[in-house]
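Bumping with the actual sequence this time:
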Amino acid sequence: MRVDFNVPLQDGAILDDRRILAALPTMNYLIEHGASIVLCSHLGRPKGKADPSLSLRPVYERLRELMEEPVHFASDCVGPLAEKAVSELKKGEILLLENTRFHAGETSNDPDFAAQLASLGEIFVNDAFGTAHRSHASNVGVAKHLPAVAGFLIEKELAFLGEALEDPEHPYIAILGGSKIADKIGVVTHLLERCDLLLVGGGIANSFLESKGLDLGASRSEPEVLRTAADLLARDGNRIKLPVDLVVADKFAEDAEHKIVDVDQVPEGWWSLDIGPQTIESFTAVLEGARTVVWNGPMGVYEFQAFSKGTIAIAHALAQGKGMKIVGGGSSADAVSLAGVEDQIDHVSTGGGASLRMLEGRPLPGVSVLLDKQAPLPVLDEEGNEKPS
């Protein structure tokens, strides 16, 4: 079972276990139906080499606390250590393999590495939506060797981000923020084909505002996308709502001097770090009547308390809405948690990159291999030969 246990760690302690908790429904279902489970996941970016600071052992310790069934740990994900641990696994027990990215073959989707992983199981369950946009050995390569199905978490993600967005209730409002528009041009274009209004904040708004000829001081911008931003405004400007005021700072720092200015009054050398109160009021007023809202990306540098008001205000406005409310993972998921309104959102995605790709209308490699099965895979014996049906 491929899970996404890529949790934040500090000094070996798990700071947020939401991704672990999200995998439990599928795990419990498998245990109830007589399976033993071999779990594989990545953690961080160890670049194909073992890195003790990125070991999944803290996750193993947390799983032992959460599960009634015995949980074991293998200090490698392939090879003799993993094979021995799997051979000793009893019905109803759980084995967590060490970080798959300790091997370079994981991210390169190496066929041999994928085959080694696949040899540890009989059925492949993918419940790692957070890596569904990657073509890696543990989510795509393994599916070439085993019958491959989706877990409940991926099923839930597809239901909300896929089906709900293909036929949304209107008014359908999309909110986009974050630091880079270059990564989200496709998302903007795809959303504008479907939504009634697009609210834009964060660093993404900088490029739209600069494309209108405004000087945003030292604010981060992307000159290479200004023409595209201008074209989008020329074509769909009546459905793109931009900030009218900003919280600006004299430096990019938590203790910076800051003030509120109109978008055409940013002082030279100052940074735009949040949307202003007029923009907050305008955006939240729009959200009151929405029947579907999708949010991806913060309105500012919410990690700095002085510049978190816009993002927190959007989170609260979203929570108070009456329609379908979907948050697309990553920083937006952190924001609704920070605002204390996570339980008031219909769906908070576990995958920032994967949710963005879905919002862009592009297929997910980790899902495509599950859904495109035209016929059952052959059953192989221990030597890899096909067994007679």
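The tokens above came from a reply further down the thread. The first strand starts at residue 9 and ends at 10.
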